[in-house]
Each structure stands twice: as structure tokens, then as C-alpha cells.
């Protein structure tokens, strides 16, 4: 059966660790030098390939994903399949009357006020940094508000 490269490592010890994990699961694997195609046995640095038989590719992939902490990566739904939906109810009281907060209007009013004062005081650089700080606070502020109970999130 043909051998298939399932992953390439930068160091031999990483490839050997993965090979050992595969063999513990009953999957025969070999470590090859990426450039020369020779089987490696020592601890020589360099690019190395981990290869398994073609029939064991899926099982080896599952073992390596489990080692990397992404065992369920193939089952995750990409965000473009399920687009984000705005909240329909308040998480606090369950009311249906929720509205998006208009944060940018307040930001532009504060930014204009700070810019005018900093210009008059000849401290435009300080004014610029204050406007940037206010922008950060606006971006992190809660975006939704319940009109029934006043809860924001």
C-alpha cells in the first residue's frame, strides 16, 4: 500500500512523538527526512515528514487532532453557514422589546467636544489620544438594551 504524508514537522522529536502516539493506537507510521526521503532514527534537526499507509489516513488524522486539542474540528459549523442573528429577547427578563444602542452619536459628540477644547488649548496631540481612548470605550460598551427592564448587554 502507498505511504501518504499526513503532516510535516520542523523537528525530529515532534515527529517521533506523533509517531509514537499513532503506533499506540495501532497505526503504523514512519518519520522521513523532508528533503532526502531517508528514514530518520536519531535526533538530527531538520524538516521531517510523518507518513502512514493510505488506508490509515483518517484514523491518523483523528489521533493527531486529538493530540492538538481539536478533536471535533471537523464537526464545527463555520460561521458563514449560520449567520449571526440579533437577540430577540432580553436575557434578564425575557421581554421582546430590545433595541440596539446608538453609541456612535454619543461618540461623535464627545469627540467633537474634546477636539474643540484641545484645539483651543493648543494640545491637539493630547486631544487625539483622548478621542482614541473614548473610541475604545465605545467599542467595548454594551450594544443592546431592554426597553422593559433597562438591562444592557
What would CATH call the homologous superfamily of the largest domain?
Hypothetical protein rpa1041
What oligomeric state best describes the polypeptide chains here? single chain
Q: How many beta strands in the DSSP annotation?
A: 5
* Number of discrete domains: 2
Q: What is the overall shape?
A: elongated
Order of helices and strands: EHEEHEHHE
Give the C-level CATH assignment of the largest domain: Alpha Beta
Classify the secondary structure makeup into a structural class.
Answer: alpha+beta
The strand order across the widest sheet is 1-3-2
Rounded radius of gyration (Å): 28 Å
Main sheet specs: 3 strands, antiparallel
- Report the helical percentage: 25-40%
Q: How much of the sequence is in beta strands?
A: 15-25%
Second rung of CATH, namely the architecture of the largest domain:
2-Layer Sandwich
Mean pLDDT: 82
Structure description:
The chain is of the alpha+beta class. The protein has two domains: 73 residues, Alpha-Beta Plaits (2-Layer Sandwich), CATH 3.30.70.1530; 49 residues. 39% of the residues lie in helices and 16% in strands. A three-stranded antiparallel beta sheet has the order 1-3-2, covered by helices on one side. The protein has a two-stranded antiparallel ribbon with strand order 4-5. Helix 3 packs antiparallel against helix 4.
Amino acid at each position: 500500500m502507498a505511504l501518504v504524508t499526513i503532516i510535516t514537522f520542523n523537528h525530529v522529536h515532534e515527529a517521533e512523538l506523533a509517531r509514537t502516539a499513532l503506533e499506540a493506537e495501532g497505526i503504523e507510521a514512519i518519520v522521513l527526512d523532508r528533503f532526502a526521503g531517508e528514514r530518520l532514527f536519531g535526533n538530527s534537526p531538520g524538516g521531517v515528514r510523518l507518513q502512514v499507509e493510505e488506508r490509515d489516513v483518517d484514523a491518523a488524522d483523528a489521533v493527531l487532532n486529538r493530540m492538538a486539542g481539536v478533536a471535533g474540528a471537523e464537526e464545527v459549523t463555520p460561521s458563514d453557514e449560520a449567520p449571526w442573528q440579533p437577540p430577540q429577547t432580553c436575557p434578564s427578563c425575557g421581554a421582546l422589546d430590545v433595541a440596539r444602542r446608538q453609541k456612535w452619536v454619543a461618540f461623535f459628540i464627545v469627540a467633537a467636544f474634546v477636539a474643540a477644547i484641545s484645539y483651543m488649548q493648543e494640545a491637539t496631540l493630547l486631544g487625539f489620544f483622548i478621542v482614541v481612548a473614548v473610541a475604545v470605550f465605545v467599542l467595548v460598551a454594551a450594544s443592546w438594551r431592554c426597553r422593559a427592564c433597562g438591562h444592557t448587554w
